[in-house]
Q: What sequence folds into this?
């Protein structure tokens, strides 16, 4: 079992839909990152979380440390949101970072 | 200001050859990370520099892989006797300091293809 699991692996939705991407992890962590990767490889950091909730524009990220789970939400989704969304965790024991495999999101116009 | 840059953007090499991949971090960032991303997978940690020294090289898959950062800025990832399994996108990231408190800024990656 991977230490960081994301679901779904692939998601196709219509423009305007509310999107939720989930990340579960099995190790003790000090922080969790949500990253966005567009075709061509460029990765952008969206959020860094250690507790609670953060919001930036149409993006919301939440984390529940007790349940070892985080969600990334996109409201009023748009075709330009189409990308791979990657969850990455910093492990408590050594600050090493482990990445999920990513969720490929495709928003149809 | 300028972000993290990586050169070359693409590299095709024959099995058994030696390759060097370069990363220019954001000026002033002391921490530099190398990752490898295979098709359909998330990035995989290779090595982390704090300043000039490798603080953690536990992700390097074997002794064919080596990285340096002699002056604490530019880093070079070196792969000897390349194998087809080395084909991947090699990503570099930098942050102001090391550790979880600091956001990492990623470069565009170098796509390595070993034929």
A:
């Amino acid at each position: 079992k991977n230490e960081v699991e994301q679901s779904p692996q692939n998601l196709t939705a219509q423009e305007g839909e509310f999107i939720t991407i989930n990340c579960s992890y099995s190790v003790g962590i000090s922080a969790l990152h949500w990253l966005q990767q567009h075709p061509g490889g460029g990765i952008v950091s969206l959020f860094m979380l250690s507790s609670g909730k953060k919001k930036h524009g149409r993006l919301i990220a939440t984390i529940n440390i007790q349940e070892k789970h985080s969600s990334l939400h996109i409201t009023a989704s748009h075709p330009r949101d189409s990308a791979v969304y990657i969850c990455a965790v910093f492990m408590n024991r050594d600050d090493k970072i482990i990445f999920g495999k990513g969720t490929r999101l495709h928003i149809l116009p | 200001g300028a972000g993290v840059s990586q050169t070359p953007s693409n590299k095709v090499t024959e099995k058994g050859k030696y390759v060097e991949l370069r990363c220019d971090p954001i000026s002033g960032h002391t921490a530099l990370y190398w990752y490898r991303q295979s098709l359909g997978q998330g990035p995989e940690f290779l090595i982390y520099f704090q300043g000039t020294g490798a603080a953690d090289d536990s992700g390097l898959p074997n002794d064919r892989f080596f990285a340096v950062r002699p002056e604490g800025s530019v880093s070079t990832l070196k792969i000897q006797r390349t194998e087809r399994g080395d084909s991947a996108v090699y990503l570099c990231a930098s942050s102001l300091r090391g550790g979880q408190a600091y956001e990492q800024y990623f470069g565009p990656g170098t796509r390595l293809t070993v034929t």
User: Anything to note?
Assistant: Chain B has a mean pLDDT of 93. Chain B touches chain A through 25 residues (CB under 8 Å). The longest strand of chain B covers residues 88-95. Chain B is about 0% helix and 50% strand.
